[in-house]
Amino acid sequence: MSMLLQRRRFVRRMGTLLAASCAMPRLLHAAAPPWPQRPVRLIVVYPPGGVSDGMARALAEPLAQALGVPVLVENRAGAGGSVGMDALARAAPDGCTLAFSAISPLTLQPLLARVAYDPLRGFAPVAGVMRTPVLVVGTPAFAGRSFGDLIAMARSRPGALRWASSGVATIGHLVLAQVRMQSRTDITHIPYQGGGPQLNDALSGQFEVLSTNVAAQQLQYIESGRLRALAVGAPARIEALPSVPTLAELGFEKANRDSLFGIFAPARTPTAVVQRLNAEINRLLRAEPLHTRLRDAHNIPAGGPSEDFAREIAIDRRRNRELVAGDRSQFD
């Protein structure tokens, strides 16, 4: 056999092998099973019984129907949500582990304490779910009747007034810090591990004031007189409490904050999975019964593209960095 013929056969053989190798990724992609193939775990970064836990469970059921697999809710509370977010960051980026959380574990917690995850690159924001107004409420231990009384008491007895939040570096803690900073008062912070335990102790008067998210249960206690609404953090007064002023109306513009909650996935989760989840969540937020449940609880459905959610997180992080830089000691 001539050298020329051998060379031609070699070239043809190499061409066949090269064509097969180029086709292999397409064949593997075509053979990849559709997502999801197994149950999805939804980490709620707060304890059972709070506002966020209830809404996460309300979302999990229709989301399971949309995806065709169970969505299993798992509470992983602690450190203002950072324990649950750390669990998410360590999970496989396959779309089968998600988290329901406020954005504060990414935009505030890392500014005040060391966290085990990368708040900038450790997560894929999937979709905003709801905006929740913040209530400042007096408990049975609070002798005053207004937010003005709260400030007066804090000035007359430095350190004696106790203000509880659902945890360090939560939005309720930020509201307290801004009130202390602007009023130049000494108010003692009582951090909890979530809204449920905090509310139980509020009803028994374990402290004078708490900041909490608006929910039907809190509103019922206010209506019955067991708690007294002093102020609300929201763009405007809320329909359920028309006589209660916003913190901005009271002169505390920087403390006038609400909470943004959403769904997150681990970083490097496939874009197609994030887009599918975003589309399903947006559809569910517009549909019944979830839309009405959010509205009845005085939450504002969020929704929108995942890129918009990521943009809001970045804006909130920059704003919080400026606030913390103003006086870090107010966040202790």
TrEMBL record:
Pfam families: TctC
The entry's keywords: Signal
Gene3D superfamilies membership: Bordetella uptake gene, domain 1, Periplasmic binding protein-like II
Signal peptide: 1-30
Superkingdom as given in the UniProt entry: Bacteria
Family statement drawn from the similarity comment of this UniProt entry: Belongs to the UPF0065 (bug) family.
Record's protein name: Tripartite tricarboxylate transporter substrate binding protein
